[in-house]
Each structure stands twice: as structure tokens, then as C-alpha cells.
């Protein structure tokens, strides 16, 4: 904020630390705590100290400005929500253990909002009665709550986090497509202003539902998402969203199915070694339980099953791996020797598209110590449903052009969905159309992780000395350091006031009894873009200006420094 008072470090409620927190796993966690931006209150729950709150507020401001620019209207809805709307959409149960549930003193059920589709839908149902009231885009910047099983990585994966969520309401699908495009462009401007390196990736909708969905991912080693990027075309996608076309092959000439003894070969590795074949020649059949019913999942033996994709396919059903107990009383299921042929109607069989009709495999014969070869898909067994369920690997062909894909880790910083009418149907959101008849409204949902963006920025921009904020989100424009005693402190305070008067946000290290070395180390740890040092030449009115990112230094008079910093 222009002309805000100079922030003196002698009065700042923040203590820097020399050592990393014992529980810190990722860079942003280490540095945000060490630099005095955040402090842990409980597992997955964080307090924002003055410097951290300034950065968080700057991210909020940028998000707010770009949302306002597309005509969105800001509201603030409660975080404490009643159960009934979430029952109506099925998400009271779908969210499972991640949902914070609580009761009031009268026994009524409530939740802490993980996301607000239902409540925004009811707000528009209350306020809009005619097509003339639409389209409308509403948004809020609000805390969300999810009971993460393992909160980790500092503010990257917390149980309370700050999020911008917006919702579009249109009467036609074309209107939804336009609202979606507005958000997509606004998000590009937001992340460009924040200084984030990001990719727009095709994504799955998950528990949100809807059709089209894209994620904005910030590449970072600390990320929990894996995305694939094609070096030859513009394809990019979360690996969970990648699917391949089913391509049947001719099976003429493949001999009849033949059972072969394979004692002590319950794994793909032992089977391939015993027969002297490649793992890719074998068919792996993973058994899972979907709401208690056993389902077999077939993939080539050299590939792993992506359980996230399996869960997404069967959502909102619960998917679990089978246990030894599940084989009891099931002679049709022989542990370590399961094959798709002869499973019968009791077991649903889904397979990856690589197990296409006409492909031939070595797989279990459903007999202990026995496998079968020449087992042909479509001839010897049928696939109930084809679903791309393998873990994507580096070098897998791009679905668009066939070039080998590159994989990278990333932090999800934004997600946009074309929800369609899922929530409007559940909550009966209609308006009167131009012909006087009810029209069912279609919706979009769009999120930006505001607190998460702070961590993503720290991950992407920090160096071996500490944080290194882009100018627009930094807690100050310039960090003035008094590297000495009375003379240096006097000059540092004088120039700080002049910089403030010129409209800059100023942090000044005026701490007494702190060595210049500690002050220099703290200035690099805190990460303000420009560092202005009142040091050995203070008596001559000469300062040293340092660029935090490049390390470039130059000596300037007070007037020259002010001119340079305000240019």
C-alpha cells in the first residue's frame, strides 16, 4: 500500500531462525518458517505473521483485481455450513473422511466448507428468478477446510487454507463456455502477474463433477501432481487425465489357449524369469473391491495400476485393495494366478486400452501353480469396460502426436470446471426463460489456491540464501539495512522515510545490538527484491543498492537511490 508507514524490524512481530524446522520436508516450509512469515499452530493449521500476511494480501489483491476485471462480483459466504445441501448433491457422503463434520448443541449436522458449489447455487436460486438476472459470476476469497490424512509440506497441504472460488451461472451451454473462457484468460493474467511459471493441463473432474476441466500447475519438485508435457506439440495434462485410443489388432494365427505349469510364480517378476519372457508379454490382473464387490483390473505386466484412475472411474464408490480374507470361500479366485478367462459373471473385468481386442497374453490360469499362454482378448475373455488405468511413464507416446512425453512434478495452483447442471439439477435451480417456461441453469466452478500460491512462489523463486519474491507480491519494495551503529541507523531511517514519501513500501532493519552479518543474512532470507544498505560510506551520504535476485550491487547517493528505486 502506497505511503504505508515504514515497517521497522525492531518492532516487527517476527523472529528469523538459523536452522530449518525439524518437521520441514520441502523448501517453502523451511524458508517461510525461518524467515518469519508463518508459524505452525497445529498439524495442517498455520498462523500468518505480519510479513506473511502482507504477501498473502498481495496475492489476494491481484486475484481480486483480475476477477473484478471480468465482471465478477465478490461476496462472502460462511465457512460453517448446514448438512442438507450437501446431502442433496450426495457430497456429504462422497467427501468421506476429508470432510470436517460437527454438531451444534441441538444435534444438528454441520460441516466446515471444503468448497461452496451448493451454497452459491442456493444463493442464486434465492436471488435470480428470470433469465434477465443472468449470466452472473460470483466469487469469494474464503478459508476452506479438509481433514487431510497426512498434512504435510507446510502451507502446501494444510487442513485450513485460503482459496478464491468463483461460480458462473448461465442459461445456455454457450454462455457457460464463454464464462469458462473468461476465467481461463483471467487466470493466465493472475499467474503472470504473480510471477509463477505454470502449465495449463487437461484434468479429471473428480468429486466436483462436470465435463471439461483444466488445472493450472506450477512445476516444482515439492509438487504432489505429476503432469505430462509434450516437447513436440502443445499437449499437457495431469497424468490422471491421459487416456489412449483403443486399437484392436488382428489375432489370426495365434494358437489356441494352452495351460502351462509354472510353480512358485505368483508375481510378474517370477513368472517372466521362469518362462524367459518380457514382463510386457504378461497380463497383470489386480483385484480391488468397489463398494465391497470384487473387480479385476487388467494391465500389461510391465505397467503399474494407477489406483487414482480406478477410483475416479468408479467414483463416488469406495475402492479398496483386496486382502487375503477376500479369497476365502472363493475357489474361482486363486491368489497369484488370476486370469480373466473363466472369471465368470461374479467378477467385473476392466482393462487398460493396451489390452485391446486381438492382443495375446500370458496370464494366470485360475489354478495354483499354473498359467496360460496364447490368451487372446476378445477370443478367450471379454472386457466389460476399457479404462486407461496405468501409471503414465516417461516416454509414453503423446495422445496427439505420438512423441515421447516428458513427466514433471507440479503444484496445483488453480482449477477450472464446466460443471454443467449437476448442482442445478440436485438443488432445482431454474429461472424463467424468454418464453416464460422454466430453464435449468448451467454452472461453472473456478478455484485459485491463494495461500498455496504463496508456497508455490517460494518453491519456484527461492535460492540457496532464502526467499526471493517477485516485486508485486513481496512484503516490501525495498529492505533498508542499517549496517552499523548510530550514524548508519540515522541515515537508514532518513532514507526510509523519503522512500515512503515517494510511495514505496519500506522495511528497515534498525535493530540495535544485531551484527551487520546477521542483518545481511536476514535480508537475503526475507527476500525483498531490493536491499539498500547504509554501511561504511554513510558519513558521505553514500548507500549500496543490491538486487536480491541477481546479486548486482552499486553505490549511490541518497537522491540517486531514491530516483533508481522509484523509476
Automatic annotation (TrEMBL):
Homodimer. NCBIfam families: PRK09194.1 (NF006625), proS_fam_II (TIGR00409). Its EC number is 6.1.1.15. This is Proline--tRNA ligase. It comes from Streptomyces griseoruber. GO terms for molecular function: aminoacyl-tRNA deacylase activity; ATP binding; proline-tRNA ligase activity. Transmembrane segments: none annotated. Coiled coil: none annotated. Catalyzes the attachment of proline to tRNA(Pro) in a two-step reaction: proline is first activated by ATP to form Pro-AMP and then transferred to the acceptor end of tRNA(Pro). As ProRS can inadvertently accommodate and process non-cognate amino acids such as alanine and cysteine, to avoid such errors it has two additional distinct editing activities against alanine. One activity is designated as 'pretransfer' editing and involves the tRNA(Pro)-independent hydrolysis of activated Ala-AMP. It is found in: Cytoplasm. Consists of three domains: the N-terminal catalytic domain, the editing domain and the C-terminal anticodon-binding domain.
